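Q: My labmate handed me this sequence with no annotations at all. I'd like to see what the chain might look like in three dimensions before we decide whether it's worth expressing. Could you predict it?
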Amino acid sequence: EVLRTANLTDVLDRLGSPLALRSLQKNQGAPPDSTLVRIAFPYWPVQNASIRVSTRFEWSQGPSGQAARLHEGIDLEAPEGAEIVSVTDGTVARVAEDPEIGRFVEIDHGRGLTTVYGHTSAVVVKPGQKVKAGEIVARVGRTGRAETSMLHFEVRVGGKAVDPEPFLGVKKTGE
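A: Here is what I predict for the chain of 175 residues:
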């Protein structure tokens, strides 16, 4: 069962704690008859544009023989200027610059759940601003180390990056 809701606080209350999301994340391979509820955000972060997942949440070799590192989100290639929306209700925690993901927006959804939207060309929200699911927060860009226009999208639970794809309702090969 996939539960789509703009109010994840209600879901987390029903599940009992913010750690329940970690439990959901770890148990994605649960059999179909299990009582596991998969949470999916009501919106994809890029709207009204063709997108392609170019990099997934995975370990990869760093450039020039550097140690392997975790790519802590997914990269969605999209046209420059495409709308980036909040995947669910929340409050803008910060707008900042990072050498890797460039200009980014971080949204706090409560109960330890945050989302990060990076490589943006323009940000249209401010820290402390409340946003609704589907509300435009930024535009796709090519900032930081982006080689093409894209959105770097992260989901964090308790400050720790988790695979965003299940939260977007994406089924991986073999699921």
